[in-house]
Amino acid sequence: MMNNVLVYAIADKYDLFGLKSIAKERVGVLAKRSSAYTEIADFPEVVKTVFESTPAMDYGLREIIIDLYSRNIDKIMSDGNAAMTDTIQEIGSLSFGILRKTMEADRLALDRAKSSKTIIHANPAHCKAENCRNVERMFRQEEEMTQAIAAKDTAKTQLKEAVSQKDAAIAQYRQLEGERNVANTKWNKAVAAQKLAIRQTEFAINQRNQVIVERDAALKQASDYLTQLDYYLNQAHKWKKCRNCGLDVTSWLQRVGSNFTMQLRCSDCGCRHKLGAVPH
Known about the structure:
3 strands, mainly alpha, 5% strand, three-stranded antiparallel β-sheet, 10 helices, rod-shaped
């Protein structure tokens, strides 16, 4: 049966109507036997394949499977065949089709009962001859059947409401999930921006600290230069006359080497006068 189901699906996909009809006919022949679901290997998988591989509006193979279930529903439920009952629970289209077929059969039986009731009321003698107790039992069964059909209609309505509620819950869940994803994205961006701001702040602090260190070093160096300059000026004031020309010293300070070391130069003869080292 599985091969014919797959052929049916392929023929439907490629619009091979003749091949599709042959496959449907063969599946129907196999499904006519009441024990088909016990004789065919992996029948539950065949059922799942039918409902998964055919469009929802294609009733060809679906009606065949639904008819087989409807004819044997009492036996399937009483046998406790878990694989078969699982297909009814898992495949909504199958369970709905079984419910529809059962309701149609109940309505047909009710119409027949009503017809028999009309005949009996029209012919009381026939009622007497056929045993009126059986007629009364038939009327009770009619009432029970009517109540059962009403209960099934109620169950069908409740099932539709439950499906609608489930769909609404799924839609709400998806909406909340989307909002959560958006919130997570915003959060991740905010965290990334905060980390960048922290890195920039740390970099600015490091630069400021470096500037402070360089400033303190420059201030210390300037202070040292001023101290040395004051010392050399004091030393220069001690020289009254040039040691070479003997004239009054009219000199200037001259830097010696790369360090801040000074010497006194005579403005007349250019004689150099060494100044003492700056004391530490």
